[in-house]
Amino acid sequence: MKHVFGPVSSKRLGQSLGVDVLPSKSCTWNCIYCQLGRTKEYVTRRREFFPKEEVLAEIRAAVESGAAIDWITFVGSGETTLYKGLGWLIRETRKLTAIPVAVITNGSLLSEEEVRNELLEADAVLPSLNAGSPELFERIDRPAPGFDYRRHIDGLVAFRKVYGGKLWVEVMLIRGVNDTADALQDIAGVLREVKPDTVHIVLPTRPSTEPGVGLPEEAGVARARLILSGVAKVVCPAKGSMSLKNTQDVIETVSAITMRHPVQERELRHALDELVPDDPDQVERMIEAMLGSGRFKTLRLADGEIYWVQASDTRG
Ligand code: SF4
């Protein structure tokens, strides 16, 4: 399928059926931690990049396949709300199934009333808030001209006022950048304005194309938990565990995931072990077959961790 992938095991959303409605990479921001590489050209105007009926047909097929799905998650190769048919798709998906719908977004377009209205029917919206000051926002998220910090915060606050679903704000915690006490106090101050239901601390566990994006030390994560929990319940998932259990075609699923983000080899092996328990030789054969397909390559990071990316990836 072109737009729908998974279901894949997600840290926060269980078995999550991903729906990608954007050509890669279409974004209003150029975050230093982005797994999709640098934003070559900002996209700031909403468009129906693909016919919405085509996307809905894929969602329908996935739902009717009987796969175990906990959430249907709209998550783009860029900023999800740039897709102009998003409100229609959320509405039509809800008519199809009782499975809850989530939208992962950087939140930059919540300043537009049209976008706020389109997201009202989602069961959960997960916008980003990585900085509590304009300076840090510019340093981390590097937005397109016109998408300044105040516009971002005002959009989040305005959305919260009208949105009755679950507002789960994501804070990407980066070592030495926004994990200091001062930076976290600033973020907490802004979160008090936004009033999320929960705050999700997320970590840059996958390789970024930029230097200087590091995993925080345990002390940094603990500090974030402590400071941000003064505002809302904090969820800080352990490193993700990938599952391929409900996958019909392993190679296609792994390919669909690597198109959106690198996959840690350790996680991949763990998922394959679950699929063919007590058969390490079969796991090795599967790994060899996947690498032999020419669709993937591996990257070894400075910390020794190996990641799988698309063969066409320009890193490494
Ligand atoms: S908002 Fe998401 S897709 Fe856009 S640059 Fe940041 S991390 Fe990448």
In CATH terms, what is the fold-level topology of the largest domain?
TIM Barrel
Structural class: alpha/beta
CATH H-tier superfamily of the largest domain: Aldolase class I
Mean pLDDT metric: 91
Uncertain segments of ≥5 residues (pLDDT<50)?
Answer: none
Number of domains: 2
The appropriate CATH architecture of the largest domain is: Alpha-Beta Barrel
Distance between the termini: 28 Å
Shape label: globular
Rg over CA atoms: 19 Å
Ligand names: iron/sulfur cluster
Strand content: 15-25%
Notes on the structure:
Helix content is 36%, strand content 16%. The strands form 2 sheets. It has an 8-stranded mixed β-sheet. The chain has a 3-stranded antiparallel β-sheet with strand order 9-11-10. It is α/β, with parallel strands linked by helices and 316 residues long. It folds into 2 domains: 232 residues, Alpha-Beta Barrel (TIM Barrel), CATH 3.20.20.70; 61 residues, Arc Repressor Mutant, subunit A (Orthogonal Bundle). The chain is built from 10 helices and 11 strands. The radius of gyration is 19 Å and the shape is globular.
